[in-house]
Amino acid sequence: MLTVPGLTIIGTAPEKASLVSFVLDGVHPHDLGTILDAEGVAIRTGHHCAMPVMDFFDVPATARASFAFYNTHAEIDALVRALGIAREMLG
Amino acid sequence: MDLADLYRDVIVDHNKRPRNFGRLEHPNRTAEGHNPLCGDRLHIFLDVEGDLIRDIRFEGRGCAISTASASLMSEAVKGRRVADVQHLFASVHDMLTRHDAPVPAELGKLAALSGVREYPARVKCASLCWHTLNAALADEAAPVTTE
Asked: What global pTM score does this model have?
């Protein structure tokens, strides 16, 4: 995911759960959610019931991809492709 | 549903370069709008004389739809009579929420937001600025919230 220009991962603890919160320069997380959905990728966007953390990181909201044992590399590639499309569209 | 119908060129342009963005030095009406689910915040500043909106500015941060909507709204209401603006709000509201309604010609560039009605979760992004404008015109002290 870090190959996408302008992408910042929020929360980089060494032993974190299998989810990645991130922001993309110039593209609000809610726009990301809508664009990724149209590309067949479901993510969660918003405050994630953790508004004080958003203030701490000084972001309006984040996008969040969650992974489980059934996710494949191809699906992660699809996510990265869709992020590129979002960047092209609004970034 | 085609994404290009939601993120039309006019929307993308107004998101990147919002018009009337900033503060008025001496506003005589202001209001704050907040969409707690999105985190969108919006502050509207007005210079109203009698029933004429002489000037408008807005600031805040939000998604492309909410920023473009506020920018388009600011262009549409500047120099207009309050009664006309209320009529315009009703037309915008219909456009955003009624699937079958034809988009009236009087909406002009605001018609670029008609694609939002295919995305129910995004309607509040587009309407927050209008509710906030209404509150400013009514001189309401309490912040507007979409929830």
From this structure: 0.91
